[in-house]
Write a structure and sequence with these properties.
This protein is mainly alpha-helical. The longest helix has 32 residues.
Length: 68
């Protein structure tokens, strides 16, 4: 019984450590390679647009204050 328990413990520990190493390696590779090579260029770079505020309005309503 004791041997079986140790074996199950070792298998579980191997699975957990293996997944931890895999996650760490993929995270390190993502940092090393960089987001541009993984995800590609951003929408702004491809289309030449950017997000900006055109107009800001403050409206008082019966429900409260809305800022758009």
């Amino acid at each position: 019984m004791q041997v079986r328990r140790k074996r199950i413990y070792r298998i579980g520990l191997g699975i957990v450590l293996g997944s931890l190493v895999l996650c760490g390696a993929s995270g390190a590779a993502a940092v090393y390679i960089g987001p541009r090579k993984i995800l590609g260029p951003s929408y702004e770079e491809v289309h030449g647009t950017e997000c900006r505020t055109v107009a800001a309005t403050k409206t008082k309503d019966s429900d409260g204050i809305w800022i758009r």
